Amino acid sequence: MTSMQPLWWFALPVLLLPLWWHLQKRERTRTEPLATARFLPAAAPRQQRVPRLVELLLLLIRLLLLVVLLAWLAVLAMPWKRDTVFIASSLNDEPWTVQQIHAAGMDGAAREPLPADVWTWLARNEHAWHPSARLLIVARDLPMPALPPRLAHTITLRTSAPAAAQRASAAPAPHERHVVVATAPQRLPRWQALFAAFSTAGEGANRYIIADTPTSTTELIVWDRPETQPPSSWQAPLWWRTTAAPASGPASGPASTFQPFIAQPALFTSAPSQQGLIWSAAQWPLTDAPAARALYEHWQRQSRSWPAYALPASIQTLPAQRKSPLPATIANSPEWLAIALLALFTIERILAHVRRR
Fold first, then answer.
1. Residues 196 and 294 in one domain
2. What is the spatial distance between Cα 97 and Cα 56, in angstroms, rounded to a whole number?
3. What Å distances lie between residue 191 and 76, 81, 106, 221, CA to CA?
4. Separation of alpha carbons 2 and 105, rounded Å
5. Which terminus of the chain is more solvent-facing, meaning fewer CB atoms within 10 Å of its CB: N or C?
6. What is the domain range of residue 67?
7. Same structural domain for residues 253 and 346?
């Protein structure tokens, strides 16, 4: 078994409460009338504490109830799953799929359908797999995240390289995307280099054109002047701004933090405004290569062209990056713990009622 919230086990001393309660048994001293007692001064009857466990069955039920409650709060998981193959729904039992499973030496492994967002799904559910379990993903074309997933298991990817090559040959001409960059002259080359790298990403599906003023076709405005405010007439679906400058116009919704992958640090915050959606970061442009890739991936996911031109994953093996799976929420506790908790509570109430009768 694996405890996903192990700090709850520090509450185990609470088991002493039922023991203390059941030890509080009072007995009245028995008195016998004697003929010579009339010559002694009268004394009121006294009560004496007898440290003895009573009603052992009820005590045992209450102890088990507290243990199961702590196990439920600690999200006790049993990593019972072994080697597993995740297969895309479009492949089924094609000869190519059988060949890839045999090449990986996982003919006897269990098979499950490939989740839609496999990397996030695995990060949240991999605690159900045994630490020594092997995971294989078989798909024709699987988009690769910009940042490597940090999982506790080794993942083997088997994708179809010919399908990716055919898709690249059939891709249309690059789509022009217009961007406005308002920054200092000495910082402009850095922005030009960033968008030049974006033009080569995604198999060259997009070509970014930098301008000084926005038009009706402008998709992004980069405001890299934290000491001033942009003109109120400028409008764009998306803005990139530094955190040093406040967002122009009142916000029309709550801000959110973008994380490129679960358990990764946040890159920027996102908040809507009257001039467009604003992404704010501590420093623009992003100079870290993994952060820039994550920004590009998240940006393209917001556009319609992303599913057709996502960079596919190649045949590779991703080693484990974590010693243990990520902590799970209480909602992911196994159902049998909740059922056992309800059953023990019912039995405890019944026994307590019978004792009072």
1. yes
2. 59
3. 49, 48, 47, 12
4. 28
5. C
6. 2-27+51-75+330-356
7. no
